[in-house]
Amino acid sequence: MSGALAITWLQHRRTQELCAGLGIELLVLTTKLGGVPRYLVLGARTLIQLARHRPRVVLVQNPSLILAALALAVRGLLGFRLIVDAHNEAVVPFINRQRWVARLSRWVIRRADLTIVSNRQLAERVSRHGGRPFALPDRIPSPPPAPLRTLDGAFNVVLIATFAPDEPVAEVLEAVRDAHMAVYVTGNHRKLDPTVVARVPPNVRFTGFLEELDYWSLLRSADAIVDLTLMDDCLVCGSYEALALGKPMLLSHNSASVELFGNSAVFTDNTVADIRRALERLQLEQVRLRAAAESKRSELADLWAASARSLGELIAGRRASTELLD
User: Smallest Cα–Cα separation from 90: which of 52, 54, 71, 118?
Assistant: First the structure.
């Protein structure tokens, strides 16, 4: 898309797929620094890229909230329209609940020319905060041709985890105790509470951080995929990855997930007892769920393509925002 530039300070599949689907150049700016030095370095690099490219439209991923605020601060000077790809934390802060974060988040929503969110529920929140929303679920990714691997159990489950505060990992580990399945947990488990690690049942395997091809190989080899969150109205990346591979999936019972995925998933309230019940159902209904996943993948691919065309016209200025937001 000519004249548009996307910038992010964090690698995330949603923004990568969004930019690939719309044909927007994406710059991923990273540094090994942390804290204030990180913001200073990435902020300076962002300003250099904006001055060099002189885009008519800038898309930023939020988080980072600081990136979004910086883009707003220089928008008038550099003369671009600002579109924010807002993840859940950018609309309803869950991990960073400080008062200044909530205020700055709402300021960004009110001032951005458009805020892209993943579902209708978040779009309604953006509207209530005085922003202009556009709802677009994640694009179904195209898995690389990763090889199958031999897993240990008669029924093998992958728990997608980053060990963030919104993930009920400890509850899952307790729920699978004595269950007739092997559970593979992705991500750096050193972030997990040591008391939880000490009580991990023998049917759990921590994979550590996996490179892209190894990650897809594990997902492709599994019988089912689990990705849970405590956030309201959060559509997790693992749900789209499960659909991409036609795998049965267990998700958290929030209104956005139930509305979008329907009978292609099993849902849980994130308690130990209910996760155990849901995993049993996942195993019993795996044939039906595989068929439902295949059907839902096709449905969401069509939905994304149609919505993305409308968004592309809006970004390019060929369609008025009021047509899309009424």
Answer: 118
